[in-house]
Specification:
Glutaredoxin; globular; binds glutathione; Glutathione S-transferase Yfyf (Class Pi), Chain A, domain 2; alpha+beta
Length: 213
Amino acid sequence: MLTLYGNKLSGNSYKTQLVCALLCIEHEWIEVDILAGETRQSDFLKINPLGQVPVLKIDNELTNDTHNNPSETSTILLESNAIIRYLAHDSWLIPTDPIAYAQMWQWLIYEQTEVRFNLASIRFIKKFQNMIASRMDEYQQKFAQSQQVLSHLEAQFSERDFILGKQASLADIALYAYSHKADEGGIEITNYPHLITWFKRIENLPNFIAFKG
Ligand SMILES: N[C@@H](CCC(=O)N[C@@H](CS)C(=O)NCC(=O)O)C(=O)O
């Protein structure tokens, strides 16, 4: 039994929902209201002391992890990209070639350090904080960084269908989550035509579900 704690407005949570949809993985979804501060309440902090979603709870009956404490009834997994790596094990979303596998991780790390760090912030400041004055310097800085990130991705997709080549992988799912919402952070997405074509390729994957955030 898998339980996902997430929020429908969160791109990091969406990654986990999208992987479950693409791979037809049964799970229970528990909506955690970030804007109402539920991630900071004591009940949730018992699940994730870092106070963030997504979180995956795995019933230990389904794991073969002998390192787990047998007295624990479940395992908690944090970090969206670690969660999707677990969910997608042995699936077509994970390349078997060692170089491609390492490149997948290269992009998963880039997604967290560059894409999410910049694009998620400008989206949050613009869409949910209505360009709050106290974050304007940060917004300007991250807006410029976001343009650089998107230009870097645009260059990749001028040469290949998916980030690793012909086949979609987890790296595409992670990169898609915030980049396809760049317009909500104030970015003019039509400046990145190869990116738009790649968005459509992802959206054409079987069982794709859209981000409702
Ligand atoms: N590196 C983490 C980041 C998680 C994260 O930033 N979660 C945000 C939503 S996208 C959150 O829970 N914010 C609520 C809070 O900080 O109280 C991941 O990829 O899962």
